[in-house]
Write a structure and sequence with these properties.
Blueprint lengths: L7 H9 L17 E2 L10 H17 L3 H4 L7 H13 L6 E3 L3 H12 L8 E5 L4 H13 L4 H4 E4 L9 H6 L5 E7 L11 H10 L3 E5 L11 H4 L3 E4 L14 E4 L44 H17 L1 H22 L6 E2 L12 E4 L3 H10 L2 E2 L1 E3 L3 E4 L8 H16 L15
Parallel strand pairs: 1-11, 3-4, 3-5, 5-6, 6-7
Antiparallel strand pairs: 2-8, 7-8, 9-10, 10-13, 12-13
Helix pairs in contact: 2-11, 4-11, 5-6, 12-14
Length: 426
């Protein structure tokens, strides 16, 4: 692939041609700061803020009437957000619900779909997955009286950063009940081949589920077309719902009507919920996999955020995201080649999520120096700097500036003023 030599004038031209450039003004950005951590916590948009104020106003003026009489009735908010999220997933509205968190939703879906019988007792995961997913898998295996050391298979990585889909498929056999994998690896940003993995699993009678935390809002999905059985995600990263924002789940329509493994008040058919029967009549939609009362104040901001995604379309978001990360990688090679950085995310567009994985032995201290210079990166132990230029609020000139700040840090050894160890929250 032909490499450009990037100048400020060239990146400024990219911004002039960018159809998403105007959306930057929709977000609360701190003057003089360059925010590259939207893959951990997205920034607040004015629309998200307005919908939160709407929920507060409904509470203030309607009291309990806000459940059905508010400007955005709370009783139906989870379903509305699910419908607004479905185009990002390539799913039908009834297959998607806004609820819980990744881990609680994962527990719910494992309790529903993981039914070890005969020899089919094992779950395939991977050794690079986020710890919380592994904790949930271990817990569910233990609840069935099985030993996670034997029944949780963690596919190993050859390089410590990426996974080989062929190796994942090789582990699938008649002892496997379920596969649970990340769509995008949280450290390296590798985008897995979801349709290939799902097809291989189904050929062997194995259910396929995915954690979409690092792909939803950055990468288009066609979950129905791919035949994925279930998925979970958070919304506070690329979907910009706010800290602790309510997550979501997807259940393929072929599984709708199944009783939830973990039943609760909001698992009910909405028409019958207030009959107060002790016999659950579960919803016929993904709403059946809700458990408790919706967290309205942590859901409302999504109404504003998803409004923008549906205006633009996830395909346009992905196009810009790929251009931003491509520019960042090329500028790292152009400006930082003598400072012992390694780009460990895949370079191919089809295999790269929304962030750049930059590896350096002094990564922790470099991240601290970047923060001092008003660049907000993300550190992942032991040696990863994650940089996430976000399509809605990062300009191409921002990327140019960030790499030059990093170059200045390395030339002048500004990172040497900091200990090369993580803070409490890295």
């Amino acid at each position: 692939m032909k490499r450009h030599f990037w100048t400020r004038e060239k990146v400024q031209q990219l911004d002039k041609e960018d159809p998403l450039h105007a959306y930057k003004s929709e977000f609360h950005l701190k003057d003089g700061q360059y925010y590259m951590d939207g893959n951990s916590l997205g920034l607040l948009s004015r629309r998200a803020e307005n919908y939160l104020y709407t929920a507060l106003e409904d509470w203030k003026t309607q009291g309990i009437g806000g459940w059905t009489e508010g400007q955005e009735p709370w009783f139906y908010m989870s379903e509305k957000i699910g419908e607004m999220t479905s185009p990002l997933l390539g799913a039908e509205p009834e297959e998607v619900i806004n609820t819980g968190s990744i881990t609680t939703n994962l527990h719910q879906l494992l309790a529903t779909f993981y039914k070890p019988e005969g020899t089919r007792t094992k779950i395939i995961a991977d050794e690079l997955n986020f710890p919380s997913d592994i904790y949930a898998l271990q817990s569910q295996i233990l609840l069935h009286g099985l030993d996670p050391e034997e029944h949780l298979i963690r596919v190993q990585s050859k390089d410590g950063y990426t996974l080989d889909e062929a190796e994942i498929i090789r582990h699938m056999d008649e002892d496997t009940a379920l596969v649970l994998l990340p769509s995008v690896l949280y450290r390296s940003g590798q985008l897995l081949d979801i349709p290939r993995i799902t097809e291989a699993a189904h050929k062997k009678g194995i259910l396929a589920g995915f954690d979409l935390a690092h792909s939803i809002g950055a990468v288009p999905h066609t979950l129905d077309k791919w035949g994925v059985d279930f998925a979970v995600w958070c919304t506070y990263k690329y979907l910009n719902s706010g800290p602790g924002g309510v997550g979501g789940l997807y259940v393929n329509q072929k599984h709708l009507g199944r009783k939830p493994g973990l039943a609760g008040w909001f698992s009910s058919n909405k028409e019958q919920q207030f009959d107060m029967s002790h016999q659950l009549s579960p919803s016929s939609t993904a709403g059946a996999f809700q458990i408790g009362t919706p967290h309205i104040l942590s859901s409302a901001p999504l109404l504003g955020s998803l409004e923008m995604f549906n205006e633009v379309g996830i395909s346009e978001v992905r196009k810009k995201s790929l251009k931003l990360t491509r520019l960042m990688m090329e500028m790292i090679e152009q400006e930082l080649s003598s400072f012992h950085f390694q780009i460990m995310n895949p370079s191919e567009d089809d295999h790269r999520g929304g962030h750049v994985c930059l590896v350096h032995k002094e990564a922790a201290s470099i991240c601290k120096a970047l923060k001092q210079e008003s660049v907000i990166p993300d550190f992942r132990s032991p040696n990863v700097i994650r940089l996430a230029p976000i399509a809605f609020y990062t300009s191409f000139e921002d990327v140019f500036h960030v790499i030059h700040v990093l170059k200045d840090i390395m030339i002048n050894e500004k990172h040497k003023a900091f200990k090369n160890e993580r803070d409490i929250i890295a």
